[in-house]
Design goal:
Chain A is mainly α. Helix content of chain A is about 65%, strand content about 5%. Classes of the chains: A mainly alpha, B alpha/beta, C mainly alpha. Chains in contact: A-B, A-C, B-C.
Chain lengths: ~190, ~325, ~525
């Protein structure tokens, strides 16, 4: 198990964070970033404005923060330490790389193909054409699964890569082959 | 053969033959993204999806439908604005989106940022109440309100809220106007007794036929098909109306041939008997109402100009 | 159109729906096939530690919607499948709990206490049979209560509650959920407040999409699937992956236990466990009918009360915790009887009480044509109310799933024991990619996947800090409805600021909402659900 902070300290940070967020949301964000205020008069009728609901939500979060502060020594299974955050950052980095592969493998491949055969295709026109439309999803998806399995096992293995590739192909078969209307990443963005 | 059938059908439905013939050369550059500004499963969404299915079956084009709902179509309008304008992205909204809503939203866009393609159907917008209320005409409503009843008037868009307010003002009564999301919510509210009357845009047809609901007035410039004796808003002293259509749009600057080909294809699908989209339009929206080309451009521009007057009148 | 006509139409809708194939001239309706496949998948998923019913529901939903489309015809097959998963997972959760001392679903934890000792004593198959009978009984009882109660409750609500009272009822439900789930009221309120906040981004009545910071990305708000799948599923995957990462080893499947002796379930056994099943079924149903309290608490309470009675009335016998069949019965009947009753607030009020109900509402919302809530139970005289037909179709689907459970559930439980051999560290990354893909095919933009990952981080943080994500999810779903109803109530009363307090019913609801928060404050509860 990961090293953790004592839960009273975590609860303190949680309550301060909640109160801080509630103050920003209720006093700055909601009033400045809403089309109408708390209560409006339009067409001679008093109506509820757009800022009211987020302000009340901020009130809930703030009240929750105060209560956690008051009961911060209550026994609690929680705990979140720097080690957890370190894991989270590494994990998000893996996801970011995987998403980048999904987004750009296809377009890069098309560009390379254009150079090779001196054509001027675009990925956008090919986004519904096999095998181009699968490149990004296959690369990014396989990378994601293989890296995560390898991370837990402590070393990269061929088995992890094979499982990743098989899973990604299976997902393509499930989502893309039977349905015309469904788009795999990144084909709805290009 | 297909081209022949197509022009024959176009001629039958009274479409501009020349446009259809010139447009038949155009084919979409890959799949067409179809953005739909209406919640999944409703009549409007069904209409859009069936049009796509009809065109896929008939022309072999491929559509990818996608829901972009909210803000009376403005979310779709903002999203489609910067998309490619080669005919590979179209969206279905209502004329109100490019008219009143765009004027009221002040989001930095005007109808000039869009290419209006074609309308498919109008609304049978009525002022509707439960028959159990005992009202048979709008005069009964006014009488009830003048007797001191607090009446709740359900609407489903800011424009309709303005109209409800002006209607009350013209008749010398004040309604408690309750704005909800979508025509079905108005109907549920009226049925549940949460509202006393409300605007419904065709969804009331079945209930009126069954005698459970009653059309008290037409919110259009013309009488309703189902209840022609009900007065129009103009009859009731309101200078504005809720005339509107389902409208296909694209980003600004769409090439002429793409716009015409899309318009002709959609118009043909909704107007041809036997097509799925024609069926649902006949059932839910009182039959197709196709406007395209310059006439449509003028309609959209006019709606936008007129919106200012309504906004002004309703804020007085 | 009387009540009986509607019931009959509902049954017909299930059996005579679109046909998938025909056997000897009889068409087999696709809904039947979907209920069966959902049920079998549910057992497998429930039997797999690390997966749970809601995960399977979440991942299959976009596939199902693509298959069946956005027409009212899609409602019964899709929701029938989800109901099958829900029921199957409840039964399946007991399998690894008994065979390998690992609960397949959190609510099966108490089953390990007596189930695994029985398996170690060579009575694994008998333990599975007891779990099966108890689970199926509890489930069926709960469904009967649902079918009898939901329509009446809905009619009452529609007849007596006006917009202000409906607003007050939503506030009461949210207050209740925030107070009773999770470690403390404070954390429940934070979770709920965040859910409301997220629901309010990009929405609102004005044309300017509020809280969007002027960006187009936030203007459409957060898609429902990203918030729910992110917090509920990705959050769990992140946390479980981290635990594995620190452990740096794959979970090894435990060894097979040697079985011996009489594995049959005798009439005497059933008579012995029947009172425990009955008591737990009532406890589970009562708890299930309250929104927000999960099957885990039901299992705990059912087990505890069973243990008390057992120690008092049968002091000479094997006590709970050492392999008493009564212990399995008390737990399984309680956690299974939550699922039916949990749909009472969903169908009569539109308020989801647990994760499975959240996905049923999500399915109804994505397909359209069925809006869970009081308006469903409008018994129209002349025209057919299609939503009511769907409601009775769902009841039929639930009873069919029960029938499947009674007939073939036991066999499939024994087969499902193999699922534990799938190592978690392979399963979790696969679930991660599946979930992300499911979100992308629904939303068709990369930003949606990023939102989901963001909500996953939020869900991860909540789990680490002892905050239950369920108030977040339920508040997110109800947030829009709460604001809309409040706006409408305010407008309908002609701008009365005190609209929540002027009618006695609304005032009572609000008083109860305050009371439930204050009372829970005084007595910090154990972590639940």
């Amino acid at each position: 198990m990961s090293p953790r902070l004592p839960s009273a300290r975590t609860n303190l940070y949680l309550s301060l964070g909640s109160i801080g967020f509630a103050l920003v949301l209720g006093l700055v964000w909601a009033p400045l970033d809403s089309g109408t205020g708390l209560i409006e008069t339009v067409r001679r009728q008093v109506t509820i404005g757009d800022a009211l609901a987020p302000t009340l939500a901020a009130g809930m979060i703030g009240l929750g923060g105060v209560l956690v502060l008051a009961q911060r020594r209550a026994p609690d299974p929680g705990g979140l330490g720097p080690a957890n955050l370190g894991f989270l950052l590494r994990f998000l980095a893996v996801i970011a790389v995987a998403f980048a592969l999904m987004r750009w493998t296809g377009p890069v491949a098309v560009t390379l193909a254009n150079v090779a055969v001196a054509d001027d295709l675009t990925y956008r026109a090919l986004r519904d054409t096999a095998p181009w439309k699968y490149l990004g999803f296959f690369a990014g998806g396989s990378f994601l699964i293989a890296t995560l399995i390898s991370a837990v096992e402590g070393r990269p293995t061929l088995r992890a890569v094979l499982i990743a590739a098989a899973t990604t192909l299976a997902l393509i078969a499930v989502y893309d082959l039977p349905f015309d209307d469904l788009l795999l990443p990144p084909n709805g963005d290009v | 053969m297909r081209a022949l059938l197509k022009s024959a059908a176009a001629a039958l439905t009274g479409l501009a033959l020349a446009g259809a013939a010139a447009a038949s050369d155009w084919t979409p550059p890959g799949p067409i993204k179809l953005m739909i500004a209406f919640a999944a499963g409703g009549g409007a969404d069904t209409q859009a999806r069936l049009i796509a299915e009809d065109l896929e079956a008939k022309l072999g084009w491929s559509f990818i439908p996608e829901q972009v709902t909210g803000k009376g179509g403005m979310n779709l309008a903002m999203a489609i604005k910067d998309m490619p304008n080669d005919g590979s992205v179209i969206g279905m909204v209502v004329t109100e989106t490019l008219g009143y809503n765009m004027a009221a939203a002040e989001a930095g866009v005007t109808p000039a940022d869009y290419t209006p393609i074609v309308t498919t159907a109008g609304f049978q917008m009525g002022v509707v109440a439960q028959s159990a209320k005992g009202w048979t005409s709008f005069a009964d409503v006014v009488a009830a309100a003048k007797d001191g009843a607090e009446l709740r008037f359900g609407t489903m868009s800011p424009k309709l809220t303005d109209l409800a307010y002006l209607l009350g003002k013209a008749q010398g009564v004040e309604f408690n106007i309750v704005q909800v999301r979508g025509g079905r919510a108005v109907m549920n509210g009226v049925n549940a007794g949460d509202m006393d009357l409300g605007f419904m845009a065709g969804i009331q047809t079945k209930g009126v036929a069954a005698g459970e609901l009653v059309n008290l007035a037409s919110a259009l410039s013309v009488p309703l098909n189902q209840t022609p004796e009900a007065p129009t808003l103009a009859d009731l002293g309101v200078d504005f109306n809720a005339d509107g259509y389902f409208l296909f749009i694209g980003p600004a600057g769409m090439p002429e041939d793409a716009r015409d080909a899309l318009a002709a294809a959609i118009a043909e699908a909704v107007s041809t008997e036997g097509m799925k989209s024609n069926g649902v339009i006949a059932k839910a929206f009182g039959g197709p109402a196709v406007i395209m080309g310059d006439e449509l451009s003028a309609l959209v521009a006019g709606d936008y100009e007129a919106a200012g007057a309504l906004l002004q009148a309703a804020s007085e | 159109m009387g009540v009986l006509d509607y019931i009959w139409l509902g049954i017909l809708a299930v059996f005579q729906g679109p046909e998938i194939f025909s056997v000897a001239g009889f068409g087999i309706s696709v809904t039947l096939v979907m209920i069966l496949s959902g049920f079998l998948m549910g057992i497998l998923v429930g039997a797999t530690p690390g997966l749970a019913g809601p995960m399977a529901m979440a991942i299959s939903l976009p596939i199902l919607i693509s298959i069946f489309g956005f027409t009212p015809d899609a409602l019964l097959p899709v929701m029938g499948f989800l109901i099958g998963v829900m029921k199957g997972a409840t039964v399946g959760g007991a399998v690894p709990a008994i065979l390998f001392n690992t609960p397949g679903t959190p609510d099966a934890y108490m089953t390990t206490l007596d189930g695994h000792p029985m398996a170690k004593a060579g009575q694994a198959r008998k333990a599975l049979k007891i779990a099966h009978v108890s689970s199926a009984s509890g489930d069926t009882f709960s469904d009967v209560v649902l079918i009898l109660c939901a329509p009446f409750l809905a009619v009452l609500v529609e007849a007596y509650l006006d917009l202000p009272e409906k607003t007050a009822l939503l506030i009461l439900s949210l207050a209740f959920i925030a107070s009773v789930i999770g470690g403390s009221v404070g954390k429940g309120l934070i979770s709920m407040g965040l859910g409301l906040f997220v629901a309010y981004v990009g929405t609102g009545e004005d044309f300017y999409p509020r809280l969007s910071l002027g960006t187009q990305t936030l203007a459409q708000g957060f898609p429902v699937a990203t918030a729910i799948l992110g917090v509920l599923i990705l959050g769990e995957v992140f946390k479980a992956l981290e635990d594995l990462w620190w452990d740096r080893r794959a979970a090894r499947p435990p060894a097979e236990l040697v079985q011996s002796g009489d594995q049959r379930l005798h009439w005497a056994d059933i008579r012995r466990i029947a009172p425990y099943i009955g008591r737990s079924a009532v406890i589970g149903t009562a708890i299930g009918a309250l929104p927000g309290i999960g099957s885990t608490l039901a299992a705990t309470l059912g087990y505890a009360s069973g243990a008390r009675v057992h120690a008092r009335t049968r002091p000479g016998e094997r006590p709970f915790g050492q392999g008493a069949p009564e212990g399995i019965a008390a737990t399984e009947a309680a956690n299974s009887s939550v699922s039916g009753a949990n749909l009472i607030p969903v169908l009569s009020l539109g308020i989801p009480g647990n994760a499975a109900a959240v996905f049923l509402i999500l399915a109804a919302e994505s397909i359209g044509g069925f809006n869970p809530g009081p308006s469903v139970f409008k018994f129209t005289a002349d025209a057919v109310n299609p939503e009511l037909v769907v409601a009775f179709g769902l009841f039929t689907a639930m009873m069919l799933a029960n029938l499947l459970n009674w007939t073939i559930g036991g066999v499939f439980m024994r087969v499902a024991g193999v699922m534990i051999r799938i190592p978690k560290h392979i399963l979790l990354p696969v679930v991660l990619l599946l979930t992300l893909t499911a979100i992308y095919v629904q939303e068709a933009r990369m930003s949606a996947m990023w939102f989901a990952v963001g909500f996953g981080v939020l869900g991860y943080g909540m789990r680490r800090l002892g905050i239950s994500p369920l108030p977040f999810v339920i508040a997110f779903i109800l947030g829009g409805k709460l604001e809309d109803t409040a706006r409408q109530a305010f407008a309908a009363t002609g701008g009365d600021v005190w609209f929540l307090f002027t009618s006695p019913v609304a005032a009572v609801f609000i008083a109860l909402a305050v009371a439930v928060v204050v009372l829970s404050l005084r007595r910090p509860l154990e972590a639940k659900a």
